[in-house]
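Researcher: Here's the sequence for the chain we discussed earlier.
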Amino acid sequence: MNETALIIVDIQNDFCKGGALEVPNGEEIISGINKIIESFHNSSMPIFATRDWHPSNHCSFQANGGLWPVHCVQGTYGSEIHSDLMIDDRVTIINKGTEIDKEAYSGFDGTDFADKLRKKNISKVIIAGLATDYCINWTTMGALKNRFSTKVISDLIKGIDLELGDCERAIAEMKNNGANFINSSELN
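Model: Thanks. This is the structure I predict for it:
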C-alpha cells in the first residue's frame, strides 16, 4: 500500500484571478499541480484537496472582525475549486473553516483529515497550493504536528505577503519545524 499522499491546498475561485481574496498569480501554479495530479493518478496514489467552506457569517470576514473580505462561502462560485484544476471523484475533498466562530487555515483544524490519512496508511504528505503564508503554512504545520513526514513543492505555492516578508517567514517556520522543500521536477 502506498504511504504518500498529495495535498492540494485551496485552489478555489476566490483565491485565483478576479476572486474576492486573490492570491497574486495564484492560478499560475495550476498547470504544474495538474502534472503532479496526473502522476499520482497513474501510480494509484491518494490525492486530497482542501477548501475553505465558510458559512456566510464566518468569523474571518472583516464584517465580523476578521482579517478578510467575504470569501469561499459554502455553495458559491467563489468557493468552487478552480475549473482548470484536474479534480475528479478520485480526489478526497477536505472542507475547512465550516464553523462560524472558528478560523481554520489548516486542513487539519476541526476536521478528521489526519484520521483519513492514517486509514489509508499514509505516513508522508506532499503539499502544494495557496497561500504560502496562511493555509500552506498552517496545513504544513498541522501535518508535522500529526507526525506526517512533510514536503512542500516550492515552485507550486504562491502567497499573499499581506505584510512584506510574510511568505519568507512562513517558509522559514515550516523548514524550522521539519518540512522539506522540493522542486516539482524532483517528483518526475
